[in-house]
Amino acid sequence: MINRHTPKKHENAAEELTCALREELLEHAGLLELLQRQQALIFEENLLDLIKISDEIFSQQQIIKSSRHTRTYWQKRTVQAMHEDDLPWDEMAHRLPVRNQVPLQLIRIEINSVLNQIQVLLSQNQFLSRRATSLLD
Fold first, then answer.
1. What is the number of alpha carbons within 13 Å of residue 26 lying toward its C-beta?
2. CB 17 within 8 A of CB 24
3. What single string gives the DSSP state of each residue in 45-109?
4. 101-109 CB contacts, 8 Å cutoff, 24+ apart
5. Which of 32-36, 83-87, 99-103 is least confident?
6. Measuring CA to CA, which residue among 101, 12, 118, 27 is closest to residue 69?
7. Quick one: pLDDT at residue 109?
8. What is the dihedral of CA 105, 110, 112, 113, to 10 degrees?
């Protein structure tokens, strides 16, 4: 008799992938917060704290890099559990049970939104930093 309460391999991997994506989202949100603080420090012309936050930003970027590796690992494991060699993200997600599809897609959308915000802040902070240093010349 089949135990229907035992999850399939691809469901376990999909759960781990969801956890990894959640973790990556949290780390990106942490970077976004640091960039917002950096921008405030640029406006305050607080050079000492700007140096400190630059180090924090670098550290956060390393944490994100590690989170991406974890997410990539679980994405590959999810695809392997489906007995496939390689699948594009959307196709992989559509093959999962609905209870896995929805969280994965929502987290992915949120990560993309946060990444867009990070890009904007990076551009703004770079512009503001150049402007502030050119006034000192």
1. 9
2. no
3. T-HHHHHHHHHHHHHHHHHHHHHHHHHHHHHHHHHHHTT-S---HHHHHHHS-HHHHHHHHHHHH
4. 103/18, 104/14, 104/17, 104/18, 104/21, 107/18, 107/21, 107/22, 107/25, 108/21
5. 83-87
6. 27
7. 96
8. 140
